[in-house]
UniProtKB/TrEMBL annotation:
One of its GO terms (biological process) is virion assembly. The lineage of its organism: Bacteria, Pseudomonadati, Pseudomonadota, Betaproteobacteria, Nitrosomonadales. This is ATP-binding sugar transporter Gifsy-2. Pfam families: Phage_attach (PF05354). GO terms for molecular function: ATP binding. It comes from Nitrosomonas oligotropha. Signal peptide: none annotated. Keywords: ATP-binding, Nucleotide-binding, Sugar transport, Transport.
Length: 99
């Protein structure tokens, strides 16, 4: 019998292979879900309330990542200002655009 954690990991694998963006963290390629407020992310017809750019990645892809590290997404460079693991195997990286 599969545990909830096993089922979630299997679901995450499918999601990360089909619904993610290519980003780099510290120059290393990673699959992540990038969103930015100026892109007006929505769920259905509801605005998500996101107020800063962020990328959601697997926990295993952010081992050793620290605040201030560079992230490149959609051709733009950002720095990590906060790291927010959610306890389900994914971590949100809160970003700030670099000029």
């Amino acid at each position: 019998m599969s545990t909830f954690r096993d089922l979630t990991a299997e679901m995450d694998s499918v999601i990360f292979e089909t619904m993610t963006d290519d980003v780099t963290i510290n120059g290393l390629p990673v699959k992540g879900m990038f969103s930015a407020p100026w892109l007006q992310p929505q769920i259905g017809r509801l605005n998500t309330g996101i107020i800063e750019p962020q990328v959601v990645v697997r926990d295993s892809d952010v081992l050793g990542v620290e605040k201030g590290d560079p992230v490149v997404a959609n051709g733009d460079t950002y720095e990590i200002v906060n790291i927010e693991p959610d306890g389900s195997g994914v971590t949100g990286l809160i970003l700030r655009p670099l000029a």
